[in-house]
Amino acid sequence: MMSKAITTVFAVALATVALSSCGNTIRGMGQDTANTVNATQDAGNRVGNAAAR
CA 3 → CA 8, 9, 10, 17, 39, distances in Å? Predict the structure, then answer.
């Protein structure tokens, strides 16, 4: 009886850690994508400004 309870608690803890890791990865990918978009826009603005001179 006690063994089953310990196994259940361990499984829930493991699932919580796994899901939080996925959340951090997805958040990081979103930040990387936003940074890429910003860098591309900045490069386009610099090229546009250089062409206008």
Answer: 9, 10, 11, 21, 54
